[in-house]
Amino acid sequence: MIELLDLSRFCATTPDRANLLLPWSEGDHTYASDGRIIVRVPRIPQVPTNPDAPSLLPHRNCFTDDGDPATPMPALATPEQKPCEHCQGHEDGCEKCDFIGYFTPITRIRFDTKGFADCYLHLINTLPNPQIYPKPRMLPAPMYFTFTGGDGLLMPMKPE
């Protein structure tokens, strides 16, 4: 089963999404999300509810494979880090690169008719035995995925 510490990797990291900074429990599950990806696992007793968390009601029907066959998550190329364009890779960095001097450009990876940010696909690939269900659904429906111990949804990128 995925540990609480592992769930935090899927939480928001910016103050504008303060309601998603920590995992929360609702019903039989514990969730973690940053607003673009959400994972759920069987309820972890020590994770409290969060009355400020967004409603899951609109997405409840998306947590299904619709009887479609699973596809193993493909291996992805390691993203290349580049010097920040604003501070030219200065060791102290700047606000644009979170003060680290470099950034990793986001690449669109296509599955059927939708494009997904490679950074999230890499994150899914860190889960045990990830399987995806990329069958196209009505846009902007998320892609359903499973892993040993849970499942999740990934929102597609906006169309080009």
Map the helices and strands.
Layout: H1 4-7, E1 24-26, E2 29-33, E3 37-42, E4 71-72, E5 82-83, E6 102-103, E7 108-111, E8 114-117, H2 118-125, E9 131-133, E10 143-147, E11 150-154
Antiparallel strand pairs: 1-2, 2-3, 3-11, 4-9, 5-6, 7-8, 9-10, 10-11
What structural category arises from helix and sheet content? mainly beta
Largest beta sheet, briefly?
7 strands, antiparallel
Average residue pLDDT: 82
- Compressed to H and E, one letter per element, the order equals HEEEEEEEEHEEE
The main sheet orders its strands as 1-2-3-11-10-9-4
The number of helical elements comes to 2
Q: Report the C-alpha radius of gyration, rounded.
A: 17 Å
The portion of residues forming beta strands comes to 25-35%
Which labels suit this protein?
single chain; 160 residues; mainly beta; seven-stranded antiparallel β-sheet; two-stranded antiparallel sheet; 11 strands
